[in-house]
Amino acid sequence: MKKILVPVDGSPVSQSAADMSIDLARQNNSEIKFITVVKVNEIARFSEEGIGYVIDYTKTNEELIKEQTRILDAAIDKYYSSSVPFEKKVLIGKPHDQILKYAEEENCDFIIMGRRGLSKIRRFFMGSVTQKVISNAKCPVMIINESMK
Predict the structure, then answer these.
(1) pLDDT tens by residue, 87-108
(2) I need a surface site. Which of 9, 74, 117, 119 has the fewest CB within 10 A?
(3) Coiled coil located at which positions (predicted)?
(4) What span, in angstroms and rounded, lies between the C-alpha atoms of 35 and 44?
């Protein structure tokens, strides 16, 4: 296991996954890829008459990127003194798509991520990022449940 991917969203359970990744990386001489994903707003909208118009979300997206960068920095700040090599990156798009794409592009051989507890009804209608990653990842995925933190 040479590269471990750890998606971070600022939740306590994602912090637990990050902590666990440091221990695992030490044991296996691995490097860690910490990422966070900004889910940006749609740019185009359509009126009831089907006429397209554009809403400028640039400012909102920039604010979201800054906020996610701050969250990622806060989550991994304590690891700078560790002997584990790591990189960080802020990605933009649908979280599950970006996690899977990045894992493949970077040839990650392991993903560790937290899972917050959605109710069964919310999970049915919305799906969960974790479930989509588990179902589509080309490498093993370790899930840290909210109850494990």
Answers:
(1) 999 999 999 999 999 999 999 9
(2) 119
(3) none
(4) 27
Q: How many residues does the structure list for the chain?
A: 149
Q: Where are the domains of the chain?
A: 3-148
Q: What is the pLDDT of residues 32-46, one digit of tens each?
A: 999 999 886 655 555
Q: Are 17 and 113 in contact (CB under 8 A)?
A: yes
Tokens of 74: 């806060």
Both tokens assigned to 51: 């006429």
β-pairing verdict for 31-38 and 86-92: parallel
Say which CATH superfamily domain 3-148 falls into. Answer: HUPs (3.40.50.620)
Name the residue among 36, 41, 37 with its Cα closest to residue 58.
41
Q: Minimal CA–CA distance to 54: which of 46, 64, 66?
A: 46
